[in-house]
Amino acid sequence: xxxxxxxxxxxxxxxxxxxxxxxxxxxxxxxxxxxxxxxxxxxxxxxxxxxxxxxxxxxxxxxxxxxxxxxxxxxxxxxxxxxxxxxxxxxxxxxxxxxxxxxxxxxxxxxxxxxxxxxxxxxxxxxxxxxxxxxxxxxxxxxxxxxxxxxxxxxxxxxxxxxxxxxxxxxxxxxxxxxxxxxxxxxxxxxxxxxxxxxxxxxxxxxxxxxxxxxxxxxxxxxxxxxxxxxxxxxxxxxxxxxxxxxxxxxxxxxxxxxx
Length: 260
Ligand code: CAA
Prior knowledge:
By secondary structure, the chain is α/β, with parallel strands linked by helices. The protein folds into two domains: 6-200, 2-enoyl-CoA Hydratase, Chain A, domain 1 (Alpha-Beta Complex); 204-251. It contains ten helices and ten strands. It has helices at 30-43, 77-95, 112-119, 146-154, 156-165, 171-177, 189-201, 205-217, 225-237, 240-250; strands at 6-11, 14-19, 52-57, 62-64, 101-105, 108-110, 122-125, 130-132, 169-170, 182-183. The protein has a six-stranded mixed β-sheet, sandwiched between helices. Strands 4-6-8-9 form a four-stranded mixed β-sheet. A hairpin with a 2-residue loop joins β1 (6-11) and β2 (14-19). The longest helix has 19 residues, at 77-95. Acetoacetyl-coenzyme A binds at residues 24-25, 27, 65-70, 87, 108, 110-112, 115, 134-135, 138, 142-144, 146.
């Protein structure tokens, strides 16, 4: 697939993905959703030596200002449901991606934009970032996981307030509530996000992938996270990486993990 609305910069094993529709504040139109789906399902898994992904928005005003409202006109109920289903599938690909995905939130993260940031494993925000789920202003609800993931990050009471009032919160408030991991100066945002990916890339990759899976398992109703942890611990102890990690500790050197 040729990317029209995403810029992909692959350097030193880190894919920096920029949603690039600045005239629409990087709103997620159908094409952009298809590109994100293809990127995480088909493209990134095939990239040799991928350490992780940094996701951001073009310009200094907006990360992603939501789904593209201009495509909503004339949408009927069946089309709306199909759109939400595809959005869930796409954001689940991000949430379940085996390498770390860090959102570098450089401005508005509203509606589908807040939902996109929440599907990432970690979120760094610039001071001017703004978060919100303004869908009720349009007479709809969040359709890309917002009613569920927001509760996971900020709790039921806070989520209920943001979802019902459509209020926007600033980066510091988002940090205080647990929606973002850190607020960093705009000028350092991408560098900090890359540093975070690098830090995680130095750890055992099979263990990292299992942790991503297990933390999500806590929120799933179809698996027992505790039982999954027991199995996954067994799996990681059986890897060559664990042999290397333990040996490196005893030999007082840095481990060289191979993902085996
Ligand atoms: N879809 C389409 N276009 C959008 C957009 C969106 N979500 N958000 C902004 N734009 C466009 C505007 O229409 C405008 O384009 P034109 O110049 O062609 O008119 C351009 O981006 C700049 O926007 P504004 O002039 O509105 O900029 P502002 O600084 O005055 O306001 C803003 C910024 C507060 C983010 C405002 O643009 C806004 O409220 N945007 C909509 C946010 C929203 O409601 N998002 C939720 C969408 S629904 C959703 O996401 C459902 C879901 O869960 C899947």
